[in-house]
Amino acid sequence: MLKQLLRSCMEGQTLSESEAEKAMDEIMAGNATPSQIASLLTILRFRGETVEEMLGFVRSMRSHSITIEASGLDIIDTCGTGGDDLKTFNISTATAIVLSSMGVPVAKHGNRAVSSKSGSADVLEKLGIQTQHTPEEASQSLLENQLCFLFAPLYHQSMKHAVAPRKEIGFRTIFNLLGPMTNPANAKRQLLGVYDHEFAKKMAETVAVLGTERTLLVTGAEGLDELSITNESTVIEVNGTDQQIYTISPEDVGLERGILEEIQVSTPAESASVILSVLKGEANPSAQGIVTLNAGAALYVSGRVDSIEAGVKAVKEAFEVGDVYQHFLVLSKGELQQHAK
């Protein structure tokens, strides 16, 4: 069946939602060869993925994933597509820690580095925060600490069949886009960083069909998969099925414009060091600002404030009184790695 679908794609046809779901089912079941998987990913990247294809792929991945119990919690996820090649520290991970310190339950979905210098799992280990949760442990951590980390390979075990082809072809694929839309806790509120605005538009249509309460899909003008502190950012806000697009700059919410070099790192250890300084409120202005900006936006997504600007103000106050760092000490149980001491 996958051979026939590949032939259709090679002839310029796109997959219907049903065909895409069946294709991903074949991959998830281990019935597709590495060559077939690599071929499909390459074809889709070359011609561009459609909303129908993303819907089918997401539905299949969700049906094959392990989920966690989060009933009664209005959870949020801060997850990016990766693939921006800008070598920034783990901004969305720092944002998740900040949010949880403010009482917002965060089910952080992430992985090790695939297309970046440091994945969220890599940096959390350096910070002494547990990443290898069972679903039961994740649910308990969410209840006790307002934060759990959902390590993608544990919850999307059927994805193991695509790992080798994805690494071998070495370029961004549709899986960069699918990951943020397959949160194992089924988060209905999300801050999704997308490295390309055209992809963000397709993802916005996809999440609107799949169901969301509020999702912000954000793209920095430099191609950053976060709200940018160094440039303007484009935001697609999805409330239910309604969408609006607008731009935002750091100055719009009371922050100074930063410098890209001040938020770039080369290793997970460097990323952890920057995050630690941010949580203490002692980072350079660019690093402190970009986490404040994204956490403020996520606070708006959660419904705790009425605007991103109000969210930024609330985050600044949390840093000033030391709540964020104290919460981090609870999360890490003081077990910081040597480089962070």
UniProtKB/TrEMBL annotation:
Provenance organism: Halalkalibacter suaedae
Source taxonomy: Bacteria, Bacillati, Bacillota, Bacilli, Bacillales
Pathway(s) annotated for this protein in UniProt: Amino-acid biosynthesis; L-tryptophan biosynthesis; L-tryptophan from chorismate: step 2/5
Sites where the protein binds 5-phospho-alpha-D-ribose 1-diphosphate: 80, 83-84, 88, 90-93, 108-116, 120
UniProt-recorded name of the protein: Anthranilate phosphoribosyltransferase
One Pfam family in the UniProt entry: Glycos_trans_3N
Annotated residues for binding of anthranilate 1: G80, N111
UniProt-listed HAMAP family: TrpD
UniProt binding sites for Mg(2+) 1: S92, E226
